[in-house]
Amino acid sequence: MSQVIDFHAHYPREEKFVERLVALLPRAGIDRICLCSAGAQFGHASNETILAAARAHPDRISALALVELGIDPPEVVDRYAAEGYAGFKTTNPTASYDSEAFFPVYERMERSGLPLLAHTGILMRIAPEPGRHTNSNWMRPICLDAVVRAFPRLNVVAAHMGAPWHEEASMMARMHPNFYLDLTGAWWGGWRANKGPEFYRYHFFWEGAWDKVLFGTDILKVDELVPSKQYHDRLIESLALPRETVERIYGGTAARLLGL
After folding, report:
1. Which of 11, 34, 102, 246 is 20 to 30 A from 65 via CA?
2. Which CATH superfamily is domain 5-258 in?
């Protein structure tokens, strides 16, 4: 097995999180993990804290910078790219992902050459912020259609297969060369915990479909790392995919998007 990369994991405000995480990675069978924040309202660490962890463990951790669409100015993308983040994360925008107000942000992301991990699907309940609304419909996979068409060199990874809009997500991956999906949401606490192998065969039926799929755990606590990886191991084994396909899911495609 080539390098295993967890493309989607979070950095909670948990005591000694980084030290415990790095110690657990070999046990989980993960070589590198991409950490990101969904924001303070989710109880996650700041971008700066995550970047510090990546700098302390450059062979183990990659940092994805949270960019808050509708709040952060486009210029922040250039700063994050210069500071050494490996990519970007976005969730809970102030309007639909395809709002042209966000296009200057996407343009700078495309120019950076770094990938974007975008939350897609239903967003968990969070405490409301004054003057700000949350609408999961703004984060449907189809809302990224105009984005990946307008910015063909921006690689977008849609988190959670767009749950519950799975077919919408898989068709986006089929049609757009710069649109990918991650598997997060598959394990016991996720949106697709009740889905078996046939569900995945149905959605990834075309030639080369699995080349558009990335492994990720979406951990919210460090103790979730090992069981989440084990769950994904069982799922992928049940699909009886060729070895080279499995290696691309587990890290080959992520390594290419991250420029590793």
Report:
1. 246
2. Metal-dependent hydrolases (3.20.20.140)
